[in-house]
Specification:
- It comes from Sinomicrobium pectinilyticum.
- The structure is a single chain.
- By secondary structure, this protein is an alpha+beta fold.
- It has three domains: 95 residues, no CATH class; 88 residues, Phage tail protein beta-alpha-beta fold (3-Layer(bab) Sandwich); 131 residues, Jelly Rolls, CATH 2.60.120.
- Helices cover 27% and strands 35% of the residues.
- It has ten helices and 24 strands.
- The strands form three sheets. It has a six-stranded mixed barrel with strand order 2-7-10-11-9-8. A four-stranded mixed β-sheet has the order 1-23-24-21, covered by helices on one side. It has a two-stranded antiparallel sheet with strand order 20-22.
- Strand 14 and strand 15 form a beta hairpin.
- About 14% of the residues have low confidence.
Length: 390
């Protein structure tokens, strides 16, 4: 039988918050073959509660996870230093299983017969690749799965959009807009080979082509985007700039994430690789990989903090990674991805925190069940495209 203390240590280990002492205790406990089997049974059982095991080799991922624990007592520290995608598979499988179902048995025992979730007329769909392309002349083209599109200098298979490399023959540069609605996401490769992933409810303005030697400029009008910028050395030394709501991000060639939603009072820029300079009004700051600059639009203030990069950019890898996020923040994310309205009846629970990694291709009921089982709220009701939490 696994004790609550061991469950907590596993969660801290997966969530990269375990101390050296925590790792010593967990490592010693799991060296016992019987305990190792208890652990594997625990994970497999909780995995099957919320997920389908058909699409991933659970046994292989569990063994890889166990091997890591056996060999690396400093794993929780080392993981922060590794490339963010390297551990994504393990994180999705194991954290989603354990964190999402944490205290499931205790919750059901303590809440038997109380406010069980009810789904009425549920027509909520999982988000997918889709966007609207607006051309220079104002005409719009719907980009969606199964629909191929060809326009001037660009092609789309309905899930991605690619622009041809070319230099403008005219002095005037044409601009296109790519708008991703709620319930969508999309990938675009610009004419200079810069790659951009757009999250739900986002809009990007960009040139159809770039003039040789001139600064490459795009504008994130609103929403969230991850940029993998083609180096300036490939473009005659031309810099790259991203504008968003009075903020300017100046880069030479790097990877970073910008979050600038219209309904949020902050702009967040997170650097994954390289260097960027951020200008807001008369203030200029530089950040290094692993740092995030946040701009409080109401207070006109800038703040730099160290962050877990994986949590900030996991959305582009098909994952929700919530690390001590409030229920209100989480519901804002889910509302965009599932294109739903969320009502939290009891305002006192809006600040309750959730820790966990969940897959974006899950049904909304499973996502809500995982968060509920963590103790963030007691019940949820779905009617049409409205979710009510109590």
């Amino acid at each position: 039988m696994m004790s609550t203390n061991i469950e907590e240590l596993i969660i801290k280990y997966i969530n990269r918050s375990a101390t050296t002492r925590d790792l010593d205790i967990l490592s010693e406990w799991i060296r016992n073959p019987e305990n190792e089997q208890v652990f594997k049974d625990f994970v497999r059982t909780h995995y099957l509660v919320l997920y389908s095991a058909n699409d991933i080799d659970v046994e292989k991922e569990l063994q890889r996870f166990l091997n890591t624990l056996h060999s690396e007592k400093s794993w929780s520290y080392r993981l922060r230093k590794q490339p963010v995608i390297k551990y994504a598979a393990v994180a999705v499988v194991v954290v989603g299983m354990i964190i999402g179902s944490y205290f499931l048995g205790n919750f059901e025992e303590n809440h038997a017969g109380k406010n069980l979730p009810v789904a009425l007329d549920n027509n909520i769909r999982i988000g997918e690749n889709k966007a609207i392309l607006t051309l220079e002349d104002g005409s719009q083209i719907l980009l969606e799965k199964g629909k191929s599109t060809e326009v001037k200098n660009a092609k789309s298979d309905g899930e991605q959009l690619f622009y041809d490399k070319s230099n403008p023959k005219e002095s005037k540069i044409e601009y296109n807009y790519l708008t991703v609605p709620r319930g969508g996401q999309f990938f675009i490769k610009l004419a200079d080979d810069t790659q951009v992933w757009l999250n739900s409810e986002s809009q990007l303005k960009y040139p159809v082509n770039f003039a040789q030697g001139r600064t490459r400029e795009v504008e994130l009008i609103y929403g969230e985007a991850f940029f993998d910028v083609s180096p300036s050395t490939r473009h005659g030394g031309a810099d790259f700039k991203v504008y968003s709501n009075r903020q300017e991000v100046h880069v030479l060639g790097t990877e970073f994430n910008v979050k600038a939603y219209r309904d949020e009072a902050n702009i967040y820029t997170t650097l994954v690789e390289g260097k960027v300079t951020i200008t807001y009004g008369d203030k200029t700051r530089k950040i290094i990989p692993g740092e995030q600059l946040s701009i409080d639009l109401d207070r006109n203030s800038l703040n730099i903090t160290s962050v877990d990069i994986y949590n900030e950019i996991s959305w582009k890898e098909g994952v929700f990674s919530f690390d001590e996020k409030s229920l209100k923040e989480i519901m804002n994310v889910l509302a965009r991805w599932y294109n739903i309205d969320v009502i939290i009846k009891d305002k006192s629970i809006e600040d309750r925190k959730f820790v966990g990694v969940l897959r974006k291709n899950q049904q909304i009921e499973d996502i809500l069940a995982a968060i509920r089982n963590f103790g963030c709220f007691q019940s949820f009701t779905i009617k049409g495209k409205t979710v009510v939490l109590e």
